[in-house]
Fold:
Amino acid sequence: MGRAFVYVILGGGVAAGYAALEFTKKGVSPGELCIISEETVPPYERPALSKGYLLPEAPARLPSFHTCVGANEERLTPKWYKEHGIELILGTRVKSVDVRRKTLLTAVGETISYKILIIATGARALKLEEFGVSGSDAENVCYLRDLADANRVVDVMQSCASGNAVVIGGGYIGMECAASLVTNRINVTMVFPEVHCMARLFTPKIASYYEGYYNSKGVRFVKGTVLSSFEIDPIGKVTAVNLRDGSQLPADMVVVGIGIRPNTSLFEGQLTLEKGGIKVNGRMQTSNTSVYAVGDVAAFPVKLFGETRRLEHVDSARKTAKHAVAAIMEPEKTDEFDYLPFFYSRFFTFSWQFYGDNAGEVVHFGDYSGNTIGAYWISKGHLVGSFLEGGTKEEYEALAKTTRLKPAIDDITELERQGLGFAVTV
Ligand code: FAD
Ligand code: NDP
Structure:
């Protein structure tokens, strides 16, 4: 025997929180909706974990960053869910799902049934063991995906004041954590296989701008190599990191950010998968019409580019969640999802935004020895992507608007001359 709900959200991360708020806006009745999450706290704004949460002074702590404060909307505290009659089943892992029978089985043996299921299981951090390196369980090796991980980073940081940290990975986690570690007066060396940081998005010129600043803060970059093993002392602490190029780095702590894998395993063989995620249509509906997928786990059609994409960013988690709920609650009023990909990051005093697609030829603009830098991406004669560091709200809005229009670009030299002015005047 178990409980039955009209709507079940599986996962209690960013997308779940935004979906819950949208359900209440669309008139869900008390007792109809539940959220099942392995985490022990209600949905929160995950981006805070690598930024405000790691500050040495006045760090962000719950309940201040429960969703949906990141989009300047209501903050959904446990009390809010109670007042709205939304059941929170926390600290509970779902171990199997039967989409034909419309049931979920939790790790404690409860069967929960639904009429409509929203999959919001997000992703898990890739482990070093998946690359043939053991030692992830050492007490001073940290990953960063959830609150428990963030607490661990804080504890380990506090036990290695003025010590040496090795950051493995030059992506989002690597860049943001390296900055936070420096702010905590820890010496940082970053190790990654590419020729520059954020290789999937940044051009060499953009990367060099940020790397120069990191260098000035004492961060050392070891590029073009990967970790091969750890030196571990008798009490189980890593003391050094061995690299494939034969060198060794002393380490009082290690932070690993080497990418993620979407949590799709409960649905393999039951739903259609694509791009490593669960394939959905423009209504966020999977290959089973009673099941929707949102956030990091969903591979959805990006109309603007005529392609299916799976995005790992908070804005798409928020918006896919809202769209799925609108499609469920007001099907006749809801169009196909039409999304402009949007990514951002903040580290030290920097703050950048990116819109669209980083495909094709790149035109840089701005002052690469100053505070405002930018770039446009031109593919098949159209502007398809844009990047800006240090912009104003109005400038970012102009960039987003222009990128969505995909204007034809006949003269790249002229675009370069106009720089940000092009977006502002379109
Ligand atoms: P998640 O937020 O990961 O939530 C998934 C939830 O599902 C979790 O609660 C998990 O416990 C639960 N779950 C999974 N499987 C099960 C199961 N079997 N049973 C029960 N529960 C389950 N993006 C940006 O755009 N900008 C940023 O600055 C930024 N910063 C970030 C910083 C960090 C440290 C991290 C980790 C991510 C950051 N991101 C950022 C990415 C962004 O947070 C994600 O894109 C977003 O959280 C995805 O939301 P989601 O709801 O799909 O998944
Ligand atoms: P990313 O995919 O951003 O970066 C992973 C990095 O690790 C890449 O540089 C990758 O190189 C490198 N790498 C892969 N394997 C190894 C290895 N064996 N040794 C060393 N480096 C390796 O993932 P992150 O872990 O940084 O971030 C995890 C998730 O969190 C992502 O979904 C990200 O979007 C999200 N996040 C987003 C933020 C934001 O949007 N501001 C902030 C923080 C997290 P290669 O490219 O060659 O594989």
Notes: The mean pLDDT is 97.
